[in-house]
Design brief:
- There is one protein chain.
- Helix 1 (11-20) crosses helix 2 and helix 8 runs antiparallel to helix 10.
- The protein is an all-alpha fold and 303 residues long.
- It is globular.
- The model is unreliable at 297-303 (pLDDT under 50).
- The N and C termini lie far apart (77 Å).
- It is 59% helix and 0% strand.
Length: 303
């Protein structure tokens, strides 16, 4: 027989349960206020790695304040990553559309013969048709439906592609096209295929508000000889993917000035609650992520 579902609990009962397992709650009203807007299941997800071995009890000295601090940190960490991922997604769209347009013509993306796997291509195009139908009232979609019979050039069509579709298209491109695009990121075709897959995977985690702090990722990017000369560890934590995002984020000034700066500020603000190694970040993470180092900037001003 199926095990019956547990009954619903009040916020006060949730507090009592947390305290019975050893979580220290010094401000009852604050805890009740947090639980009234943060799903109890979400909260306990962050508590999972703080359990004592073979027990439901939490480690000694663990406070509600620390757990909530980690949750707030993780939310803001995801926000920074989403900003970087969206920028990378736009860059990938531009690079892939440019290659397709100049290699196969403005509507060459519609022809299965231009791709390795016709069945995979048809599946991607079916997904594209669904998106077009869903967004047919958008001005640029309506314009091409009325004036061009629904046929869009790749540089227009790709605006409707999801990151998953970009991954599928890149995997299905001829090797020469893959290499031409990968070269612009200073890596190889196999590596870029893996990197797009990993960024898409991370984006899905971020978009669904999944925990990243002290969470073992299912995927890790392939390494390349050029970008991994200074760092070649594999942690199965967020840093593995953030590190290759550095290579995919082509605007060095924005990467350093916004992404790395925001991460640094965030880590300092929540230093009392977090351990960056739980995200796979090494102690020298900032030096590894900066695209332009201070000494390089000084040298450039002297030239």
């Amino acid at each position: 027989m199926k095990k019956p579902l547990k009954p619903a609990t009040t916020f006060m009962e949730q507090v009592n349960k947390l305290e019975s397992r050893g979580l220290i709650i010094s401000d009852l009203q604050k805890a009740l206020e947090v639980l009234s807007r943060l799903n109890y299941y979400t909260l306990t997800g962050y508590l999972h790695n703080f359990r004592k071995p073979n027990s439901d009890d939490y480690v000694d000295g663990l406070t509600f304040e620390r757990i909530f601090g980690i949750i707030e940190f993780d939310r803001r960490f995801r926000n920074i990553l989403m900003y970087a991922i969206e920028t990378i997604e736009h860059t990938l769209k531009t690079k892939i559309a440019y290659e397709l347009a100049h290699s196969f013509g403005p509507d060459g993306y519609l022809k299965s013969s231009n791709f390795r796997n016709p069945a995979m291509h048809q599946e991607t195009m079916h997904r594209f048709e669904e998106i077009v139908a869903k967004h047919k009232k958008l001005p640029f979609v309506r314009h091409h439906l009325v004036k061009y019979g629904g046929v869009m050039p790749i540089w227009v069509a790709i605006e409707l592609f999801t990151l998953g579709m970009l991954e599928a298209v890149f995997k299905n491109l001829p090797t020469t096209s893959q290499k031409a695009i990968a070269k612009q990121f200073g890596t190889g075709a196999r590596q870029l295929t893996s990197w797009i897959e990993n960024v898409r995977y991370l984006r899905n985690l971020v978009a669904h508000y999944m925990r990243l702090y002290d969470f073992r990722l299912q995927k890790t990017p392939k390494q390349c000889k050029y970008h991994h000369t200074l760092y070649h560890n594999t942690t199965h934590r967020a840093f593995d993917i953030v590190y290759i995002m550095k290579a995919l984020f082509l605007d060095a000034k924005e990467w350093d000035g916004y992404v790395v700066f925001a991460l640094d500020r965030l880590f300092v603000e929540y230093s009392a609650f977090i351990d960056i190694s739980c995200l796979g970040f090494p102690s020298d993470w900032k030096a590894l992520l900066l695209k332009v180092h201070p000494q390089e900037e000084v040298a450039a001003t002297k030239e």
